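User: What would this chain look like folded?
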Amino acid sequence: MPTSPTTALMTFYDIALAPPAPETSCSPNPWKTRYALNFKNTPYKTTWVPLHAVSSVRGAFNIPASRKFADGSPYHTLPVLSDPATGRIVGDSFEIATYLQEQYPSSGAGDLFPAQELDFVFEWDLALFAPIAEAEAAEGPIAAYAKFNTNVDAAFSAHVPLMVHGLPFDPATAEENKAEFSRRAGMPWEGLTVSGEEREKLLRSFEETLGGLARLYRRDASGPFLMGSRASYADLIVGGWLRMSRGTLPGEEWEALKGWHNGVFGRLHEALEVFAQMD
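Assistant: Here's the prediction, encoded as C-alpha cells.
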C-alpha cells in the first residue's frame, strides 16, 4: 500500500532472537501476523522485542493476555499490533488477522477468510509446552478458521521438543532466554528436547500428524495453497509454523519435512515467500 509523509504506520511487535533479528525471526504466531500484514499490503513498521522482555513490553499495553497457563495466570507473548489510524491495540495473531480484514477489507490480496472447509482435527495426547489459543466463539467462515488455528497450533506444539534446542538465541542473553523459556514451559532447559530413538519416534509422529493436514492440500491439485492458487489465512497459519520449523530443526530434518507427503509443505513454504517481506 502506498504511503505518504503523513501516513501513520502501524507498529508490529515481533520477538527478537539472535541478531540480526529479521534473518533469525522464527516465532510462529508473529510470522502469522507478518504474513497477514503483507497479504493485506498494509503499511507497518516492526519493533523487535528481546524474548526476555516480552512480558514487560506486552504488560505495558494493559491488554489481556490471549492465553493462560494451567494455573490461570496470564501467558504474555507477542505479536501485538498498534494501529494509530484507529487507536486500536490488538494482542493476538488471530485477532490481528480478523482486525485487518474488518478494517482494511479491500486491501492487498483480498479476503483473508474466504469460505472453505477446514476439517483438520488433531486429537493430542502429547504434552504441550506452552498454552495454545483456543478457538473463539465466531460465526461464518471465521469460525472454521479459528478452530483450524487451534488444531494446527496443537499439532505443531506437540512436536516442539524437536525444535526447542535449535532456537537461535542471542548469545549475549542466551542463558536469560533459556531460563524464561524453561519458566514458561514449567521444566528445566535440559528436559526440553529429545534425542536418539525418542527423537526418531517423535519425528515419525510429526510426519504422521502432518499427513492429516496434507490431505487438505491435496484436495486442489493445482496448489500450492488450500484453495489452489489463492492464499488464505489458513495457509498463513501453517506457514507460521513452517517458519518455526525451518529456523529451529536441524537442516536434514527440515529438508525431510519439506518433502513429506509429496512435498506439499515445501511448496507451501516457498509460495508464501511473496508475503514474507520485511519492513
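The first strand starts at residue 10 and ends at 16. If you want, I can go into more detail on any region.
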